[in-house]
Structures are given as C-alpha cells and as structure tokens.
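Minutes, methods subgroup
Present: GH (chair), OT, SY

1. OT presented the first of two proteins processed in the latest run. Sequence and structure tokens recorded below as shown on screen.
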Amino acid sequence: MAPRASAAQPPAARWLRAVGDVAIRAVAPKAVAATVEKTLEHADWTLAPGSYYVLGYGKAAEAHVEAWLARAPAPQDVRVFTATGYQHGRLNSTICGEHPIPGRGSFRAGLLLSDWLSSLEPRAPLVVFASGGASAAIELARPPWSSTEIVAASKDLLGSGLDIVAINNVRMQWSALKGGRALDMAGRRRVALAVHSDVPPGCETLVGSGPMDPGPFPTSDDGRIWFQQHFPNRPWEDPNSPERIDHWHGLRILAGANQTALEAASRVARRDGLHVEVFPEALSGDAAAVGRNIAERTQQSAADVLLFGGEPVVTLPEDGTVGQGGRLGRLVLSYGLADWKGHPAPLLALATDGKDGASDGAGAFWLPGPFDRLEAERAFEEFDSDRFFRRQRWLVETGPTGANVRDLVIVLRNERHVRPDGPVRD
C-alpha cells in the first residue's frame, strides 16, 4: 500500500505524501511485471503454460510474483520466500523468514529453497523475482558455520556501520545460498532474473546477497577487514566465480530502482511548475550526518523541491541501549534539529518498502509548527524517534508497499506554488 494523503493534514504534508505515492507507484508490482513481460518479449523468450518455473525472494517477492501470475502463462510451479510481515496470504507457495536478523524460519526457508531448486525439471526455464530483504529471510549455513554463529555475527554486522557492499560480501562467506550458490543448485537452464534493486547503481548483483545471480559482485576491503578482525581463524574467499559467470545462460532485468522512483517524483513536481533539484545518491553514510547535510543543502538551494535518494545507515551504541526508531527517523530528527536561519522546510522521508528498519513506520515528516526541542533532542540521543514522531503525529505508516528500492527524501522548500489538493497526477 502506497502512502495516502489525508484531508486533515496541512497542504505541505498532503503534497509531500502525494508525491511519495507517485514515486512508489512507479516501482510497484504491476510496473515490475510489465517490465519483465516486455523484456522477455523483446528477447524472444516464449513461455508456454506449464513449461517454466517461477521463484520470488525478498520483501517484495510475493507482490511481484502475484502481479506476474495475473498477466503471464501459468507456470509449472511457484515458490516465494519473503520476510515475515511482508506476506499477503494470497499465495499458498509463500514461505517466510525473519528480518533483519535471520532466525529459525530463515534457515527453514533456505533448506526448502535448496530442496526445491534441486528438484526442478532439467532445462525448464526459470523466471526469478529478486528484491531486498532476502539476505536475512532465506539462509543456509555453509560448513563449518553454524546457524547460531550466523545469527550472532549478523547482529554485529548490521550494527557495524558498514555499507551494503561490505555487508553482503561478508554474508556470502557463511552462506550456502548467497553469491550465486543457489543458482548452482538450479543446474544449467535459462534464467530470467528480474532485479528490484535496493542497492546503489552498479551493485544490482548484490540484491538479496545475490543467491540466483552469477555476478560479478562488487567487493569491498572494508568487509574483508571486518571479517578477518572478527573471525581470524576463518578464511576469506573471493565472492566471484569466473566459471559461474562464463556459464550464465540468462537475462538480468532491472525491474525498478531508486532512480526510477526519483524520476517519477521529479516529473510530477515539475508538472506543477516547480523547480526541482535531484540528488540521486545523497542518502549514504551516517543518517544523522545525512540529515544535517540535507538541511544545509536546502538552505543553500534556490529550488522549490529537493529530492534525495539512497539509504543511510545507523551505527548503534556499543551497549545496545536504544529505543524504537529507524534510520529515517534519525535522519529527520537530525534535519529538524540542525542549525536553521529560519524554520525548517517541510520534509518527508520514506522507506519505499513501507518499513523504516526498527521503526513501526515507513518514515516521518518534519512540518512547520511547534515542537518540544528538548524532547526531540532526547529522542535523538536515545535512538527513540518513533515516540517523538507519534506525539507530533508526524510518523508515516503505509504497511507493505510491494516496492523495495531504498529510501526517498522529499523537501518542499517553497510552498507558495503548491496546489492545496496535491500535485497534478499522470
């Protein structure tokens, strides 16, 4: 479900939410299925009823597979692996695992995926819908690793502040599925891999840690260094397999990315006659620093609307004492508490999958109006943004959207020309 504007909200909030709605629709399940269908037609892939298989994994997998089945020939069999809380219950083939830390369900899902891939009819084509969240939701320990070790290491890894390239490189070390190893289990066959990207441009092979992708995978010295510091007695292996890359018989289809959503938001704002500045990969690094940077750029800009894409990270305190809130909640607090010459411009930060990390929401507003600065500062220091935003009624809740292309931040620097009923739609 995409964000919806409410008539009770101020015009700036209604406009921001409506633009967010447009952005998410551009990468929604119907758009994904249409992109895959069109690409396969152009590649002369013929999929007769009952002649192929469908696999989906990640937070958006069930929604994407459901949209595909509504328009494509019926496959021989379907399997969907998603994160708990992202299932709709309309597909009998959906299996859930925990997220963001793998749990018992994740390891059960990994075993079921392994068994299913090994059982496929030889040579039958496979259409795969890959989205983020699969790194935790499906897991299978690679000897000599144990599930207990992987869970503990995952907690440390996600609190490390490393970027997604480093994190997924490390995950590939202990997994029997990641880094193309699940693809190996499927045997030689044509594979259409539709990637719904929650990673930076050029890193699409890393989506879900690439279980069905041949690579090549971007690599990071930061990941190797972290791994060797934490596991000095375990060898570090290059995630890439030249043989797997050479024997790849398939298509990789980019079926939605952060840039797609940014372009849709930019179009609708420009249609309202507004001057727009776009910063495609500005949401990178520490969330608090990113929030301050957005405040600075907003005050320096002459544009009416500023759009930011990417996904920041949060480094948690060593004692692990935190409240409830996500990376975007922390970003928005930092933005509102920054050094402003006047009032902060209205802002909406939105996780396109509908879930801002440990928050109950998809993101948050910062809107004009009174607020308790001491309470905001305390929420920031205690990593407890949800409490503050609920009290302000600035927490944004959407539920699962069927998309997962990282985060968007929309700043409405100039409200004077904003339509009170929201932006002009397509």
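2. SY then presented the second protein from the same run.
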Amino acid sequence: MVNEYSLADISGIYNLHLIQDTVNKVVISGSNHVNDFKCDQRNDSIFINSGKKINFNTAKNNLTLHFSSLTKLVTNDPVTLSNRDTLKFDHFTLWNIGEIAEVNLTFVCNFFYFANSANTLGHFYFKGSAGFASFFNRYGSSVFADSLYCKSAEIYNESVGDFYIRSEGEVKIYIWGPGNIYISEGSIPNVVESKGDGKIIFIPD
C-alpha cells in the first residue's frame, strides 16, 4: 500500500496496468528479478525502479497501479500500457519516453496531454472522450486517436508514423515530419506550421 499519489514515474520494463480505485497500491508479479523492484514515495509522487539488473530474461513483469487521483504518468523504459475499466480524470498527462511503448487506453477527461520522445517507437491507441487533447508525437510512433472524441485538439507530429484524430471542432496541426495526419471530416484543421512532408487526409466521420 502507498499513500494517495498524483504522479507515477516508472523506470523498468513492464506490462503496466492502470486501475482507478478507492485504494492506492502498487502490485508487481513475474519472474524477472521482482526482488529488485523499488517503490519510493515523496509527497504525492511515487518513483518505481526495477533496479535494471542485467540478465537474459526478456519477459516483462506485470505492474499494476491502483490509484484514486493520478494526474500524470511517466514511463522511462519499454512498456505495454493498458487499463481495465474506463478511467475518469479532470486532467491527465502521459509521457512515454522509453525506447518502445505499446499503449491502449480508454478514458474520459477534460484535458489530456500526451508526449513521447525522439527515440520512441510504438503504437498508441486512445479511446473515450476529451474536452481538449494535446499530442506531441515523435520519431517512429503512430497515434490512433480517432476513437477519442475531442471537442478540440492540437497535434505536433514529427514522426514518420501517421496520426489519426477525431474532433468536433478545431485541430491545430504542426507538421514537422513525414507522417500523415488523418482527420475526421467533421473536424476543422488549422495547419499552424508545415515544415515536413506529411499530408492532411480526411476520413469519413
């Protein structure tokens, strides 16, 4: 058990599961040096580290975060990330800055902020709804947010991967790479900056 936390900063290779709950706890299971696992809490933040002991076991441990008031999640190493039931937030920030991330999240929130790093490969699936969503997508990642119903959004895409978005209103777009932006026909694209080869492609609403 841990005290209530709003930030989770995670280092290590995991199958990561999010569960919104009335209790706050961290559960780890698996065969890859579980005893090296450390969880430190500082005020309203938890910092999780696997110890990064070098070994030949490539299996990911399972890490489950039970939380009541999470607002920011940072992953620093390769992960898969998913949730069991629809998550509900006022605002939520997700930074996947490890080398690989495979993400599939369903949530409802007023404000959503997402970013990955200049070294991140992966596929990111976001579903549910958001009042406003901001995305900073880089390197070789593809984002599928066409099942995330946004009232408005902004996209910074410098990835070779494509980006799919659905919005009821304006979508501010910064095309900084070769990846295309696939946007629902009901959206209003506003290309603020275009210094890459990516194209705007409309898809049926």
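Chair's summary of item 2: The chain has a mean pLDDT of 93.
Next meeting: continue with the remaining queue.
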